[in-house]
User: Which sequence fits this backbone?
């Protein structure tokens, strides 16, 4: 795993921890049910906190699983397992994995683990309405020179970020880079 991918993996771990904090602290709690309700095989959420609780538990399980797999691979002490509070499992996984990104990058199962974590993070962001449209720009990144620049449009701001190396074009340089993009497009159409 290359160094930019390792930085993205570290950011992903941080985002999942922040997702867990947001779900665990900012969403309302479910109303206690006094009587039994019929159940079906399909999972239907009657209250936002039920979904938030399930997603929090899934984050804790996936991070705990990644922690367990890497600790087992490295022959180190296993993490706290289910039965321990989510808070402790999240904290243990973050503390363990955050400083072992290079070791995690060398682990064979990291591709599968990362794919699951990305899918979970994206599912949570989409359900919370935090997704924003992204537009691929036709110019290379000034840092890595790959054509992976994305413009993300938000309600109050725009940003340009490289999908490969994570380089962000600051707002102060946005107008300059917009001129560079326009010149590149004009040069390509003239040719």
Assistant:
């Amino acid at each position: 795993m290359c160094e930019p991918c390792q930085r993205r993996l570290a950011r992903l771990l941080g985002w999942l921890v922040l997702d867990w904090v947001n779900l665990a602290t900012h969403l309302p709690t479910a109303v206690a049910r006094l009587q039994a309700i019929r159940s079906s095989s399909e999972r239907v959420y009657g209250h936002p906190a039920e979904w938030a609780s399930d997603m929090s538990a899934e984050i804790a399980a996936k991070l705990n699983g990644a922690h367990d797999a890497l600790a087992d691979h490295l022959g180190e002490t296993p993490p706290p397992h289910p039965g321990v509070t989510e808070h402790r499992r999240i904290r243990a996984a973050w503390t363990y994995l955050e400083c072992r990104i290079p070791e995690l990058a060398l682990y064979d199962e990291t591709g599968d683990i990362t794919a699951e974590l990305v899918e979970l993070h994206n599912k949570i962001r989409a359900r919370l309405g935090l997704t924003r449209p992204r537009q691929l720009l036709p110019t290379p990144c000034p840092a890595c020179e790959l054509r992976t620049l994305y413009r993300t449009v938000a309600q109050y701001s725009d940003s340009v970020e490289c999908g490969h190396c994570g380089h962000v074009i600051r707002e102060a340089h946005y107008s300059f880079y917009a001129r560079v993009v326009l010149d590149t497009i004009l040069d390509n159409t003239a040719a």
Observations:
- The mean pLDDT is 82.
- The two ends are 38 Å apart (CA to CA).
- The chain has six helices and four strands.
